[in-house]
Amino acid sequence: MAFEALERIAEEELSLRWERCRGLMRTALPGAGGILVFSRMNIYYFTGTWANGVFWLPLEGPPVLLVRKGIERVRLESSVEQVFSYRSFRELPGLIKEAGSELSAVAAVEMTGLSWALGQGLDRHLKAHELVAGDSIIHKTRAVKTPWELAKMRLIGARHDHCLRELLPAQIAPGMTEREISVQIWDVFFSQGHHGLLRMQNPGEEIFLGHVSAGDSANYPSVFDGPVGLRGQHPAVTHMGYAGKVWKSGEPLVLDVGFGLEGYHTDKTQIYWAGSAADIPHQPRQAHDFCISVQNWLAENLRPGAIPGRLFQHCWEWADREGWSEGFMALGGNKVRFLGHGIGLAIDEWPALAKGFEDPLEEGMVMALEPKIGLPGLGMVGVENTFEITADGGRCLTGNDFSMISVSGT
Questions:
Q1: Of 51, 182, 212, 326, which is most buried by a Cβ count within 10 Å?
Q2: Which domain of life is it from (predicted)?
């Protein structure tokens, strides 16, 4: 049977990614002769196919993709020339050598791409090789997007904004439950091509659609590494919205929902107010305006050379001076100490806008900025939008209107 790939990333595009990764290895891991990649997301990034296997990127010589299953699909979709099947890690050195490369004496490894058991197996079968952690190299490689990736993310951001600010308001109203609102979000998202899932790279973390939180749901205790609380569907499925929580008049509705298309994502939070704009009380209006000011300042300063930790510290101290420290980035145990994160193939990419992140920002990085404020007894207000880092500052990919949207009852 003759099939055609739905999309095939050109070797020239993949080569840009390989060379950035190699450059980072030479600087940060000068003893390593290459890197072994195991997670499907990172294999896709380097090869263009969602393969079950191992990718070897040497400092010199041809990359090699080894797969456990689906080699026909891999050859259909990937521009990598050296592709082989394998069954055991013990075969890796021989197959890599057969491909015209060499598994170096010191090899970087994507350690978070393996379970503990598989990691022990790899170590056992590669006793002759010293394995060193290479995860940070991959994170930093992916952080700077190529022009090909940026074109995708700009399209995704435009559709994301169109859905949340233009299509959705006509389909939701006070009196609906969080779950009913979740269904309406999926309806408009799918109409615009959403691929139906959101991916995270932090091991064990999950997300589906995002957070749909009406009123005090946004302050409900959360284990998710983000400021927005939520009841979720059930203690075993803490995503989307709860069928028993109704969005009531005089409450904010927080939709912290990502949009995904062709593997990539943007992140956006939109606040809706149940009632007229004139009825929004002073405190939530003032808090929301403060969050917009923080986002705008951060966007202005998202320039090559800026230090994420310093941007974070400036805004954290600013919130304290303005009297928002209690609820800034959530209340109580929900509080998180970051203001944004990288985004691309995963929602939670490197770097974070947080203390301890001292590597300068680079042009072509994409970050989600999400200053928010939790208000006791009411819920949460604030913003989140996705920005491309340019020489002139952050360019918003998810729209330019950050106001609350007022929605009247039916």
A1: 212
A2: Bacteria
